[in-house]
TrEMBL record:
Source taxonomy: Bacteria, Pseudomonadati, Bacteroidota, Cytophagia, Cytophagales
Single GO biological process annotation from the record: homoserine metabolic process
Oligomeric form and interacting partners: Homodimer.
InterPro entries to which the protein is assigned, alphabetical: AB_hydrolase_1, AB_hydrolase_fold, HAT_MetX-like
Family: Belongs to the AB hydrolase superfamily. MetX family.
Protein purpose: Transfers an acetyl group from acetyl-CoA to L-homoserine, forming acetyl-L-homoserine.
Main location: cytoplasm
Positions annotated as active site in the UniProt record: 136, 290, 319
Keyword Transferase listed: yes
Pathway: Amino-acid biosynthesis; L-methionine biosynthesis via de novo pathway; O-acetyl-L-homoserine from L-homoserine: step 1/1
GO CC field: cytoplasm
Entry protein name: Homoserine O-acetyltransferase
Amino acid sequence: MPIQDVFHYQEEFVLESGATLPGFQLAYTTYGTLNPDRSNVVWVCHALTGSSDFTDWWSELFGEGKLYDPQEWFIICANALGGCYGSTGPLSKNPKTLAPYYHAFPQLTNRDIVAAFDKLRQELALERVHTLIGGSLGGQQALEWVLQQPKVFERLVHVVSNARHSPWGVAFNESQRMAIRLDPSWGTDTPEAGAEGLKTARAIAMLSYRHYNTYAATQQEPGNSITDNFRAASYQVYQGEKLAGRFNAYSYWLLSKAMDSHNIGRDRGGLKRALAHVKTRCLFVGVNTDILFPVEEQRFLHQQVPGSSFYLIHSSYGHDGFLVECEQLAEAISNFYQEETFQEELNYERQER
């Protein structure tokens, strides 16, 4: 069974902005056992509102008899710094004031979040990682981490994500933050601040996570007589209330800002120059109906990273297809590994000749 644990970092942690945290903690989940040479590590980076429990939101990939069987792999995922599933975030107590941070929690970038992950990696003495996999926000962080620690990660599975967050993506996120900002409670320092605004924010987000065809297939009204109380309307309300019941507006705000900050070309001479330095073997995965991280973004990555692979998932679920179409994703990853094995065998035959 997956094991939950908490890593405590007790030194000052300097953020990209220059602000500091007086230490932090990361909640993390592990599943499986390290093999003798510690070469079977799979590290998972979660999406915006995910937790470290990858068996919850990517259950079709991880488990006995599945692609990543704990009998063969040691799998780990940490809840992102700034999150609300056990890691230090806005609702955590500031050790200096003994009161929750709330709005005083400093802004984070993906580079900060990845740097915190790497403190955990070092604590666990994981000198190399067989595969780093992440989707959406987690894909952004995974790509950033590969650039920060090029000698650690042997393979990257980068799913429905990008090299730099687009103006389109930033606009979606800002529209959601506008909803939170308009909530009268947002200006208060309370755990529930912005909760009503968060519901609207999530409803807005659903329009970017799904697709016209998704709603047409699942929310269409039967018959022709309805003039109010539509399924699609109640669905939006339901999704907002569902998220507000398990997340908080502070973390949503903070992590959406981290997503906006994503730009691997920052201080590296631009995107193309940064990607030319990627030595990790990469698989870039897109979803054909994704409007938030459109396929053009993954194709760009594939074109810029020498020797990389690309796989297109076909789905009517838009961006969320990466969580729904797990059979296709598993096939993509399996093919990725098989291509590597084939190339190694081919190179061996050439050497023998």
